């Protein structure tokens, strides 16, 4: 009897772990596709290197655990899902900003936002998305998850967790130095812009930030480019979040991306 109970618990644990990774992957696929369409090139928009966005996995686990008694009531399902995911999104945004000194997404330009972390139109969309998932997508995912948990038991979950932990450790280690690294580059860009402004005879002439400072920097010596390198993870993070706001520098993230592209060309 005890062995049977342990086996049931193991399978339930495996099921929930696989649900987490399934929806973390679905979230990654959605986010990456959306960003890729906007940028017109494929972009891994996840914080991690692997094809998962954990906040989607945690959100759907919470939804599945909390809303099960209300899954047949579409109105209650919609409202509870929107509220639950909004809270998770706000807390995640706050924690990531405190840890890594950057605002990874920003809804300040969207009406009815709260500190730029969440916004009513986005929350309403999340509620609609969850209803679609619970009613049509979850039954399909559930079949796959139950098959995997029955066939591989805890093994699949343990392997996936081990890979995720390695990815988290590697990414976080690089992200912790992200603020200082982007600050160095931002300071260099601002210094170059200031130098160009001082050279302008007409102070009312507007600096073309897309071209002039880049052209001036392109002609600078290799000595000035020392210490302005970002590693692969840091460069990817810059490109992956379209509304990224850096807390350590006032330089727009897009300007730092342009600088990185210039340095990359010079290395070839």
Distance between the termini: 66 Å
Mean of pLDDT: 83
Q: Any idea what the shape is?
A: elongated
Strand line-up across the major sheet? 1-4
Extended strand count: 4
Number of helical stretches of at least 4 residues: 9
* Low-pLDDT residue spans: 1-6
- Give a quick account of the main beta sheet: strands, pairing sense, barrel closure: 2 strands, antiparallel
- Please write the string of helix (H) and strand (E) elements: HHHEEEHHHHHEH
List the helices and strands and how they pair.
Blueprint: H1 2-39, H2 54-66, H3 74-100, E1 102-103, E2 113-114, E3 118-119, H4 120-152, H5 154-175, H6 178-199, H7 212-218, H8 232-240, E4 245-246, H9 253-267
Antiparallel strand pairs: 1-4, 2-3
Describe this structure in words.
This protein is an all-alpha fold and 268 residues long. The protein contains nine helices and four strands, in the order H-H-H-E-E-E-H-H-H-H-H-E-H. Strands 1-4 form a two-stranded antiparallel ribbon. The protein has a two-stranded antiparallel sheet with strand order 2-3. Strand 2 and strand 3 form a beta hairpin. Helix 1 crosses helix 2, helix 1 packs across helix 4 and helix 6 crosses helix 7. The N terminus is likely disordered.
């Amino acid at each position: 009897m005890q062995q049977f109970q342990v086996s049931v618990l193991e399978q339930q644990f495996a099921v929930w772990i696989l649900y987490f990774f399934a929806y973390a992957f679905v979230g990654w696929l959605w986010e990456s596709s959306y960003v890729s369409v906007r940028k017109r090139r494929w972009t891994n928009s996840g914080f991690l290197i692997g094809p998962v966005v954990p906040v989607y996995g945690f959100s759907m686990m919470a939804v599945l655990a909390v809303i099960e008694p209300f899954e047949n009531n579409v109105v209650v399902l919609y409202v509870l899902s929107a509220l639950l995911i909004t809270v998770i999104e706000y807390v995640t945004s706050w924690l990531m900003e405190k840890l890594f000194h950057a605002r990874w997404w920003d809804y300040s330009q969207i009406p009815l936002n709260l500190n730029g972390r969440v916004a009513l139109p986005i929350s309403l969309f999340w509620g609609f998305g969850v209803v679609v998932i619970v009613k049509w997508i979850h039954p399909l995912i559930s079949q796959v998850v139950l098959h995997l948990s029955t066939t591989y038991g805890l093994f699949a979950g343990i392997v996936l967790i081990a890979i995720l932990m390695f990815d988290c450790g590697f990414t976080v280690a690089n992200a912790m130095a992200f603020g200082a690294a982007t600050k160095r580059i931002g300071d260099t860009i601002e210094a170059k812009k200031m130098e160009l402004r001082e050279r302008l005879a007409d102070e009312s002439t507007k600096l073309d930030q897309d071209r002039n400072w880049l052209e001036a920097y392109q002609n600078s010596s290799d000595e000035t480019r020392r210490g302005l390198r970002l590693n692969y993870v840091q460069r990817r993070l810059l490109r992956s979040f379209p509304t990224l706001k850096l807390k350590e520098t006032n330089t727009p993230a897009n300007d730092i991306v342009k600088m990185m592209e210039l340095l990359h060309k010079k290395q070839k």
